[in-house]
Amino acid sequence: MKRIFKNLIVCFSFIALFTSCEEELDLTNPTALTLEELLQTNDGFELLANGVLDAYQKVPANEFLLTELRSDNSRANSANGNLPDISAYIVDPNNGDVATYYSNNMHTIKHANTIIENRFLAPESQQYTVGEAYFMRALCHFNLVRAYQNVPFIDKVLDVNVNEANDYPQLAEAEVYAKIIDDFKTSIAYLNGETLNRYRPSEGAAIIFAAKAYLSQPTPNYEEAELLLASVVENNDSYGFDLLYTEREPGATDAEHFFNLVLDFGNVLGNEFIGELSDNDGTPDGTWTNNSGLEINNEVIFSIAYDLVNSDNYTTSDSGLDDQVETDSESHSFAMTLQGGSNGVNLATVSLLEVMTPELQPVRFYGTINTNEYNTFLSNVTADVFNNKFPTDGEIGDNDWVVLRYADVLLLYAEAILAGGNSTTDTRAIEAFNQVRLRAGLEEVASLTKAELLEERRLEFVYENQRLYDLIRFGEADNVLQEFSNVNSLTYNPDKKYLPFPQREIDNSPGLYTQNSGY
């Protein structure tokens, strides 16, 4: 359960940590032990592993701004600072979000490398923490290579006093992916046989991410990806993964069945529907709210927990000494929750609202789009339409961030079988694809095209930061985003698929890093 994070001791650094999760923290001296002393305690590696996950909590905070906002799904209105520029593909190398996203991933990598460098000291009972460290190091580099393309791969804790960063130049994209895949495969070996905890890296999650990396690299390895994904799809019950899906009940009307599917789709991200089936037209009538009791379910494979907690037993790296609130465990992103709506961020584009309609998407629509705002949009196309996927308020929200869910696995499996082709009738791909279609209340298909798969991913994962990378992986970013840019008078060009390399990093290591083309 997400309450695992109530037990984290997360005022964490590489030179000093506390003694035990069970002991009350002395706020006058919150860093009592050196790393060397910590590694000799019974639960030292567990604390280190918890610190890695705590560090990663900061990564989703602005990821939306750099991914979904630069796709054809979302926009920001003109009153919101520099965010409209981001959605218009006007991003400066000095942009704070560009630099922060890079450094937050690198910060997590540093925590992971501390475990990896000391892995031979880990007791048998805590070997899983080494697997988690390799997983998280790979995941953060996966984030970085997809966002910035050519990045260094950091495999040790760098000593800033001797400027060891100069030993880690930018690598070609393919080299970075090779190292990422190696890390995921290493984590599989360490995590093999460990009990599934959806708030921690698992063997199944590592297998899936290795496959996704194979699909994402410059020259995709469809065969290896297919083998890895098949091992999960064909044994999903043993892994504990499945779609949230309600079979049609005997005698249920179409409207009643769709209503159950709407509930399933909303529940995937831990959202509860407060309302009922409308007597007027059979549509859901009510609102969504986050329910932490729904956030752990069979569809969630790996999730980052967020919870607003009061405690006298710990503080966090962001907390003041007089503030016992877990401040770095707030909502994962202002922009993606209701706070974003009030600020004019994460608004649906006209392009999205042309395909995300109650008629075309009878199930997904209600768990994705704010119905009242959509109805206003129908009479006024300039109206702001916000999302329903993260229905909590900014700082006080506790929606978890779902990094990986089983619907993604099924569609990735179909993608691997399609193997870059334009269409397939392979029954394995069709069956996987149709599972996602049926949960969405849509008709099954007898064949599958690349365009249909890309569109299905768009509609299934709206606001989940997948669209931009899907377009790049399918080789359609330039076609789709250029047309979207032209229609909306934006400034996309092929160089804008990737973010500028942070100017701060270039300045800190003169002559080592090269700015990406177009910036």
Structural overview:
- There is one protein chain.
- With 519 residues, this protein is mostly helical.
- It folds into two domains: 210 residues, Serine Threonine Protein Phosphatase 5, Tetratricopeptide repeat, CATH 1.25.40.390; 215 residues, no CATH class.
- Helix content is 42%, strand content 6%.
- The chain has a two-stranded antiparallel ribbon with strand order 1-5. A two-stranded antiparallel ribbon has the order 2-3.
- α5 runs antiparallel to α6.
- The longest helix has 22 residues.
- The chain is globular.
Question: Percent of residues in helical segments?
Answer: 40-55%
Quantity of strands, as a count: 8
Ends: how far apart? Answer: 44 Å
Uncertain segments of ≥5 residues (pLDDT<50)? 1-32, 309-329
Descriptive labels:
Starch-binding associating with outer membrane, 519 residues, 6% strand, mainly alpha, two-stranded antiparallel ribbon, 2 domains, disordered N terminus, Serine Threonine Protein Phosphatase 5, Tetratricopeptide repeat, 21 helices, membrane, single chain, signal
